[in-house]
Every structure is written in C-alpha cells, then in structure tokens.
Amino acid sequence: MTVARSASFSALTKAGFSVHLIARAAHIVLLGTLAAAPGFVQAQASGAPAASASAARRFDIPAGPLAPAVSRFAGAAGVAISFSSADLKGLQSPGLQGLYSVEEGFSQLLRGSGWKAEPVGGGNYALRKLSAAESEAADSVSSLPQVVVTALAQSPGDLPAPYSGGQVARGGRVGLLGNKDFMDTPFSVTSYTAQTVQDQQARTIADVVDNNPAFRFIYPDNDVTTDFTVRGNKVKALDIAYGGLYGLTSPGVEALERVEVITGANALLNGLGPIGGVGGSINLVPKRATSTPLTRLSTGYISDSQFGVSADVSRRFGEDERLGVRFNGAYSDGDTATEGQSKKIAMGALALDYRKDNVRLSADLGYRKNDAQSPSRTTYVLSGFPIPAPPPSGQNWQQRWSYDNTESLMGTLRGEVDISPDLTAYAAVGASRMREEELFANSILYAANGNLLQRQVYWPVYRDSSTAETGLRGRFVTGTVGHSWVVSASGLWVSNGIILNNLANTYTNIYAPVFIAQPSIAGLAGPSDVPKTGETTASGLAVADTLSMMDDRLQVMLGLRYQSVKSENFSPTNGSTLTSYDKSVTTPGVGVLFKAADNVSLYANYIEGLQQGPTAAAGSSNAGEVFAPYVSKQYEAGVKVDFGGFATTLGAYQLTTPNGFTDPKTLVYGINGEQRTRGLELNTFGEITRGVRLLGGVAFVNAKQTATAGGINDGKQVTGAPKVQFNLGGEWDIPGIQGLTFSARAIYTDGQYLDLANLQPIPSWTRYDAGVRYRTQWNGTPTTIRLNVQNLTNKSYWAAAVDGYLVQSSPRTLQLSATFDF
Length: 822
Known about the structure:
22-stranded antiparallel beta barrel, four-stranded mixed β-sheet, 7 helices, 8% helix, single chain, Ferric Hydroxamate Uptake Protein, Chain A, domain 1, mainly beta, Phage tail protein beta-alpha-beta fold, Maltoporin, Chain A
C-alpha cells in the first residue's frame, strides 16, 4: 500500500480488458433488448398535482424516444394516458421545454408522429391514430416557419432549447452578450447538452469537446479539466469559465447542463482569463432545477475495475414553483485501464434558484476530491533525435508511488432584476479554493531508444480565487434601428502558492520501465503550508451594442473592452517581490450577421484575443522589462444553414498572434515574433433523417511561424498544430426495436511537430469509439443501459506534441452504466 499525505489507496489486482467482460456487458444489453417486447402502456399520474387541460405549467421533457416521453409528460402533468408501445416503435419526440397546458404539451410531443392524445373522461387520455387527411393538416400547421423570440432577460433556468436530436443546443452564452441562438450569432458557437454528456458517459471536459473538430487536448485529463489547442493556440484549463465566471473550479461534468464552446479569439466577449487563451473559450453551465420532478440514480463500471454511483435530484417548491433545488453527487473508485493506475473521485454540487416576477436569483456550491495514483503525465523530449514510437497501449512508465491529489470547493451567487421592461441589472460573485499535492517523476526522453531521465518531484500547490461581474443591459429603438446594449464590469483576484521540490534523478526506459522506492518527503511543506508565491488581479470594463435593421435580418455588433492586469511573483523563502506586472489594453470587436433567408445566416467578425504580456528574459540587454498584454487579431467569415432538423456551419478565419524573442544580434528582447493561423472549419449537428443523428466536422489548419528570431524558423509549422482535424460521430435508433440506439465516432488528427524547427514530427492518428444504449421500463421505472468503448482498436499513439512534450493516448476503455429515473 502506498500512502500519500491525507490519502491512501488500495492496490487492486489488474484484470485487463477481458473478452469475458465485453461478453457479459453485451449479454446484459441483449437481455434488456429481449425484455422490451411491445406491450400496452398505461402511464399513471406520479404524485404531481393534476392540471386542468387549459392551465399552463412549466415542463422539461428531453428529446428522445416517443413512448417514454409521453409517459413522463403524463406523470408530470398529473394525468393518465393509455396506449400501446408497439404503435410508437421507432418514433422520436422533440421534447418539451417551457410553459404548456396538458393538451398543448401532448400536441407538441406528438407533432409529426401521426398520433393524437384525446381526453376520454375523468382526466384520462388515450392515443388515437390520425387519418391521412388529419396528419396532412397537422403537418402543415407544425411546419410553419419557426419564430425565435429573444427575451431581454432570461431566468437562470432558461437556456436555448436543444436542437433536433438533443446533442447540442440552439445556442449558448456568448460572453457579455448573453444567451443567443446560433443563427443570430456572428461567431462560431457550439453548446453541448447534458444529454450528450450522459449518453457518451463523458468523465471530463475533454470527453465532451472530443465532439469538436477545432479542439485537441494537449494534457492528460487526470481530472475534470485539461488543456487544449484551438486554431494553433493554447487554451489552458484555468481559462475555462464556470457560469460565465473565470477562476472557479468545476465540481464535475455530472453537474453540468451545457458545455459551451466559442471557437476563436473572444477578448471582448469574455475578457482575459487567468492565463489568457486565444484560440477559443469554454464555459460550463451548471444544472438547474426543472419543473418536472427528477430523481435519477446511476451505477457504473469503467475498465479495468472502477465502480461508481451517482445521483441527480431536482425539485421545485412554493407558489408558481419559484424555488428550485438540484443536487448532483457522484463517487467512484478503482483501477483504470492503464497499468498501475487508480482513481478515486468524490463530488457534490448543490444548485438553488428563485424566480419571481422581475427578480431571478441563483446560487451554486460545489465540492470535488480527486485522488489519482500513478497518473498519466507528459513526457518532455530533448532535441537531436527522432521521436520513438510509443510503447504498447496502457503501458505506464510512471512510478507506482506517484500521485496527484486535488481537493476543491467553490461557490457562486447571481442575481438579475428587471428595472423596466427594457432595462435589466445583473451581478454575480464567486469564489473557489483548490489544494493540490503531487509526488511524481518528471520524465525527459533523451534518446531514440526510449531512454528516460526521471526527476523525482514533490509539488504542493494552492490556489484561492474570487471573481465578480456586474452590469446593465437594455434595448431601445432609434428610427428603424433596434439596439440591444450592455455595459459590464468584471474583476478576478487570484492568490496562489507553489513549491517545486526536486528530490533525485533516476533513469528508466519507456519500453522497459525501472521502478524505484518511493522517496521521502518528510519535513517538506504540504499544500496547507505553502507560502504565497503569486498574486494576480485582472479587471475590465466592456460596452457593446447590437444594432438590428431590416426587420432584424441585418445585425451589427460593436463593442470595446478595457482590460487591466496586475501581478506579482514572490520568493517562497522570504516573501520578497521577485517580479511585478501592471499593464492595460483596450480591445475592440465587430460582428456582422445577415439573414439571406429564414434559414441562412451569413456572418463576419473582427475580434481580438488577450494574453498577459511577457517579461524580458535574463540574458537579454533589457532583462526585466515588462510588456503590455499580447493582442491577437482575428478575421472570420462564414455561413450557417439550418435545414430544420439538421444544421451546418462553415467558417474561414485568419488569426495572428504576436510572440516575443531575443534578437540574436542586438540581444534586445521584444515582441518581434508572430505566428499566423489560417483555417477552414465545417461543423454539422442534428438529425439527417428520423432516428439518425450526426455530430462533428472537419478543421483545416495552416498555422505558420511568420516572424522568428533571425528568421530561422519562418514559414515552419507551429508546434502542436495538425493541418487536418476530423471528428464525426453518428447515432442510429434501430427501427423495430424501440429504445435501442447504436453510436460510433471517428477522430482523426494529422501529423504534427514537437519542435519549432520541425525536425521532430509525430505521425497522424485515428481513434474509433463505439457504443450502444437501450431505454426501457423496469417495473414501471424508466431505465437506460449504456455501453461505450473508447479507443475500440486499443491503438497506441502520441496524441499531442506541443511545447516540447508528448502526450500518450489512453488505452481501450469500456464503460457500462445503468440509469434509473424514479
């Protein structure tokens, strides 16, 4: 047994990825399939107060197979409905979100199905097959053009509705502009839903973003977040926002309603994060209580021998269901599919919200503890030799005693008040604390035969953050031009402490690891004893106005953001200031959107990105000089087409990012370098036909170094920037077997370079994933069984090469779960 500070792990016998486990999982799914023989269903009221046929209530029924959706709606509405499940085989429902009467709700759920819910007395309903003429009349009504109404202010639970198929939403939060439909947004925005997180059994943000062709993870995802590269630029885990606020830790994907992605620079929209990602941004949206009561329990297994359980409970209380409470909790423990590796995770998230008339309030509290034994890590590479092939999939050369233990706590408060129908004030505050303790071997590859130098390191870390934003948004009309304006102020305060203790150097090999005894850390400061070594304050003020003309067919967004950054680094021994930074910059943004047709939007934007500027390095003639924040410049244009149940977006862009280097002739350090990325991105999502869904796309990336020290690397490819990235996933609802869905996904990443001189390439790679799920009723309880396999072929490859290090692929991993909605 290996004992870490404040944590212990039990070594479990490795069973491998056995054919026996796959066979057992397939057997379970087969039994569930055979148990789904079509029969007569009578959905009863489930304790919900009975609603009159005309009284409107708020419902939240997810898209999916029609029969369970009808049953769930009837239970939530407090009515009974009788029908034969065989009649609804293979039929899907678009779901139901919002205020509906009972009859309106049934009509929406059954739209286009050829069936109608009719009252049969006593508050009961029964399904009736429509005649051909009735179906044609109903379809003509249901096929009217969709009208999207954008409200001035949305309650905490009001998010853009899911798009057809339910995998993505119709829109998401576009920074200070608030929630917008994707067809009304002059930027590249994709919002992945909780349904996608659950159906794909995502464990981390990287698992969710695997659906996006523009993103590639560049750091092992040992916990909920990781680092990414987007459009040839890095997005660090610390730059992932939670509820629109930077600096907060996420309790886990189990507590998320949406994972919202903006591809491209976005300084105006979101401001400067703790690190300053340029290529894109990710915002995590917490779950809120739904009007439909929910008690969801899940049990799961992940190879090699991880078992877990999770709960999702949602209720609304009081007059008009003004108070909402939602709790998510999860626990898992056991060995992973990587040799010698185990993980133990415990998380909990409580979400509260209150809405009344013109006031909306919400609060979030989250806790997460993640203990990883022998976790995956990056491998640094020296220059001068070709990169060797990775070892077999799942082999782990990390020392068995190494660990990475984190514990975090976060909380937020948000409020909105409608001062008038055209003016809303809002404010939000948040805080988090994180404690991390790492004992590991920092691996450095120094020969083509796989030889490694390992520097044993003990690394305690703490990070305390607080954040706030406030603002006003409103609308008015001047002549024939509508204005939707916003003024926002934000602040982020981060205090952190890090001590890097180098213990010893040893040697090993990636193909034949040499394991040594655990080094002693007796007498070294732990996470609670680390002195403050850094402090950063980032504050900003932004203003934007969206002008709507030509009956809203033409929209022009104009905005400015002033951003200030102050930071200091302190000596861990005596607390003296080592370096300081105090700079500010103003960045503009312009976006134009023109609706060429009701379902076609043309867009273009110019927007800038921000990164904290550097300090001239030691050895330069101006060592210590502090530079203003890097300002990256992006031009983008594209087209978005909504075919009704299926949508595509196509965008072309150019993004230039300044770099600093020391001139070899003058020895002066300056912002003289530049990298330029030009690219084309195609995204697709939705249902191409009933029961068949696609999600993914392709990104062509041409990232070049355009100004380097002495011009030595001009024209060479940026590290960690593959030229082609392709993601395409599909789902197929099997005809004739209601509730059974097969899924598959392919992820391709072109070759890339580890070094600036482009002398150390890694080859392209392709990963295949597959899954099956079955939705049924178990003794009247809606039940979903899911089986997913990641890296189906168990291929071993270098997944990323950036900043002088490599990231190895994860081995084949099986996930099996059963979810029960009580």
